[in-house]
Amino acid sequence: MTDIRFRSDIAVELVDHMGGDSSIVRAARVSSGTAGTPEKDRGLLNMLARDRHGSPFESVILQFRVEAPLFVAREWFRHRVSSFNETSGRYTVLEPEFYVPQGDRPLRQIGKPGAYRFQEGPYEQKVRVKAAHERVARWAWDEYTSMIEGGVAREVARDVLPLTTYTSFFWTVNLRSAMNFLSLRWAHEKSTVPTFPLHEIQQGAMKVEEHAQKVAPIAMEMFSKHGRVAP
Amino acid sequence: MTDIRFRSDIAVELVDHMGGDSSIVRAARVSSGTAGTPEKDRGLLNMLARDRHGSPFESVILQFRVEAPLFVAREWFRHRVSSFNETSGRYTVLEPEFYVPQGDRPLRQIGKPGAYRFQEGPYEQKVRVKAAHERVARWAWDEYTSMIEGGVAREVARDVLPLTTYTSFFWTVNLRSAMNFLSLRWAHEKSTVPTFPLHEIQQGAMKVEEHAQKVAPIAMEMFSKHGRVAP
Amino acid sequence: MTDIRFRSDIAVELVDHMGGDSSIVRAARVSSGTAGTPEKDRGLLNMLARDRHGSPFESVILQFRVEAPLFVAREWFRHRVSSFNETSGRYTVLEPEFYVPQGDRPLRQIGKPGAYRFQEGPYEQKVRVKAAHERVARWAWDEYTSMIEGGVAREVARDVLPLTTYTSFFWTVNLRSAMNFLSLRWAHEKSTVPTFPLHEIQQGAMKVEEHAQKVAPIAMEMFSKHGRVAP
Amino acid sequence: MTDIRFRSDIAVELVDHMGGDSSIVRAARVSSGTAGTPEKDRGLLNMLARDRHGSPFESVILQFRVEAPLFVAREWFRHRVSSFNETSGRYTVLEPEFYVPQGDRPLRQIGKPGAYRFQEGPYEQKVRVKAAHERVARWAWDEYTSMIEGGVAREVARDVLPLTTYTSFFWTVNLRSAMNFLSLRWAHEKSTVPTFPLHEIQQGAMKVEEHAQKVAPIAMEMFSKHGRVAP
Predict the structure, then answer these.
(1) Distance from CA of D140 to the nearest CA of B (A)
(2) B118-132: string of b/e by CB count within 10 Å (b at 16+)?
(3) Would you give the distance in Å from CA B182 to the centre of its chain?
(4) Which of C35, C162, D55, D143 is buried deepest, with most CB atoms within 10 A?
(5) DSSP string of C77-126, one letter each residue
(6) Looking at the DSSP assignment, which residues form a beta bridge with residue A168?
(7) What's the domain count of chain A?
(8) Could you tell me the CATH number of the domain that includes residue D213?
(9) pTM to 2 decimals?
(10) Strands B97-99 and B5-7
(11) Residue C25: in which H helix or E strand, if any?
(12) Which helix (H) or strand (E) holds D136?
């Protein structure tokens, strides 16, 4: 009997960071060297976000450790202006952790391409979908462990694992690029750009934003104030 | 009964390109404007590759259409200095195409981490591994189609598909970045850097190289001559 | 007597390109493979620009040869998602070509930092400014040629040349990154983002846009229609 | 009488940083989570540098404040995988600081293109070159201040300043990209790639290396041990 674990969360831990609001201000003021009052700093951050002077926001760096299923990781890795280090299924035996959709995950897709909306769906559909996810995970994990135990290379055996398999990775990103991630991966009410992010990556984006707010609170406030477009 | 298709190849088609050896020479000679003889052009390309003057190689662009299983696509997409457009399992119903390892795919991994080698493995192991890949693909495809037919959103149903599922993508890349890809994804005998690429991505890299050789034959010759390190 | 040449223009020649509207459409449609009517293609390009689906625009590549004074080139080279090859003052003896402001170049700066506007200025100021630019160019060129003739290394002699000295470079850029350049370097009436580009780089941007319009007319139309923000 | 200052140094101050040897090790070990002994960490860093596993080195970030003449800054800004914030001659009145070559700056260039070497040159040549640099700086500064005092826009007046004018900028760069900078901008005796960096940028690179050694001493040791090629 295998000890398969099922989960639905996207774990996002801030493991390191560099700088904050004051680094952005300092980078923007390299010209003058003047110190500025807190109020003026606030005004400067407002102006930088409003007029899309993006480069000073690259002075703040965030490093996260993320745990997410592969179908979420695949979207995350599309963000090229950042650094990734991920668990390798070639070098390690993977953990039996798999994603299943929870009750709050809308399951029905309506509308035409490019403008999908989602609806809850009936209770028994939720039960069937959850069961299907669990079945595939168990079958695939059994085949995986059989092959590993039979001496098959990890990089071959892992091919059969589903996109629900959890992976973990370090993500190092500057605040400007993180804002771009947030603008695309969170359909925030203050966003001026229509986006249709995947439910699960939005859960991750919300946690990224929470951490970013602690590191650079005024910059993040101005990002939201000005339509949540990366400067 | 579903019409599942199994394949083992990595398809790489060159769909467009810009420039060639002469564009590299022209970019490198922007200073002088002199025309140069064919022999001098060859000498210049040799020098550029040898001394790692990389930027002129960015004047050549290659655009490919690739078909590969997800576990190969995931490695390919790590190459950040290039552009990708991929089939989306959120917007389309996927094709029932899955990877199975062929007879020439070594299955046994020996040696310690960071220095793995691979061995063939006995015949019956090959048979068992192929059967395991086929079983998981069939089970997962059945669950996927059941959910789609039951009205479940594509982006939820596709989670259960395995990493062997084929995807297709456009890849636009300049020659310098393509050389970096080739240096890491092909354990070529002329390579001076030890690499341990995945068997399947190496099959893709070989095809990328063939196309690149047609577009910029002298540049590619010099790349191999000087240790297959991206300039 | 030296044959110093004075000019005020930014020369932008399209030397090569790859793709066009149809490449963007093809990259966006990788999923379905459907051909689409011209009208549907137009609608797709509209949607991609409106909803900021940027990656398909990376399928179009433009290669320019630019001649511009150093103070313009310095701004141009800040655009990191593109490739540059520039005349080297270390390896070649430079040309005696220098920038002077023409009559239509506004000379007076009014308003507070971050919101400057420019005014014409009186006629005699224009004359004095032009004369000052010419004097410095002649003096610096005399010192430069004296040092070169005296056997001083080019890379040392060229230090004394002013920022008005013309340079030439190849610029290879995808259409998405070119749109970002255009959004920042042209205070276009349809732009929704306030920008204060340098007069001279705006002259260059206008020419870049003209070329881009020939290569991908519908994409460029949609870029303007949706506020001239890079998708 | 103006208070022009002449200098010859490249000032490189480390203003912030994130991580160190242990962050690289942690990123490389994301798979296993094992702690490792100091000796094993050292072995891992050795292997990563030797086999060019570059991405873990992106976990270390360095932020510098640099003061350098424009002809040095122009080369520095070619390093696209990093962030820059520079003093703007459009928004501020510049400082009267200019570069002059010192006695240890070789002035004579010998050999053919692509393989230049430099020689000292006679004493009176040094005197003449220094005087030429000083003359141009004074003339240009006088024209600049006249125009500024006459109400000419800063962005027009600054055009006449020479490439010897000092600028200052913040540079945020990860360790992998910094290693690439060091491999190209320092003709180090342990380097396996032939490079011909500009004398002045090499002075800057030496200081960058000193700071990097403090932040990630073992990583930098392994970089030198394995031919000073960016992993």
Answers:
(1) 27
(2) beebeeebbebbbeb
(3) 8
(4) C162
(5) TT--SSEEEE--TTTSPPP-EEE---TTS--EEESSTTS-EEE---HHHH
(6) A67
(7) 1
(8) 3.30.1360.170
(9) 0.96
(10) parallel
(11) helix C21-28
(12) helix D123-149
Considering CB atoms only, which of D52, D193, D195 is closest to B193? D52
Domain annotation covers residue A125? no
pLDDT for res C33? 56
Whether A110 contacts chain B with CB within 8 A: no
What single letter denotes the amino acid at residue D229? V
Asked if D120 and D191 touch (Cβ cutoff 8 Å), the reply is no
Residue B142: inside a domain: no
Q: Which residue of D has its CA nearest to C166?
A: D159
Interface test with A, best of C40, C47, C185 (most A CBs within 10 A): C47
DSSP E strands: which ranges in A102-209? 108-110, 117-119, 166-174
Cα-Cα-Cα-Cα dihedral sign, residues C70, C75, C78, C83: negative
**For residue C200, what are the domain limits?**
5-98+166-225
- Identify from D6, D124, D135, D159 which residue to disrupt to test chain C contact, counting C C-beta atoms within 10 A and taking the largest count: D159
CA distances from B166 to B67, B143, B163, B203, C193 (A): 7, 17, 8, 15, 42
Output the six-digit token pair for A208: 């990224």
Q: Which amino acid is it at C105?
A: R
**Per-residue pLDDT tens digits for A24-35:** 999 999 865 566
B155-208 confidence digits (pLDDT tens): 999 999 999 999 999 999 999 999 999 999 999 999 988 888 999 999 999 999
State which residues of chain C have pLDDT below 70: 1-2, 31-35, 112-115
Percent of chain A with pLDDT over 90: 81
Interacting residues of A131 by C-beta distance below 8 A, sequence separation 6+? none
- The answer to whether the beta carbons of residues C133 and C200 sit under 8 Å apart is no
CA C84, CA C67: separation in Å to the nearest integer?
A: 13
Would A132 be classed as within a structural domain? no
Distance CA C200, CA C164 (A): 11
Against chain B, the chains showing at least 3 CB pairs within 8 Å are A, C, D
In tens, the pLDDT along D215-229 reads 999 999 999 999 999
Two structure tokens written together for B213: 């050789």
A105 located within any domain? no
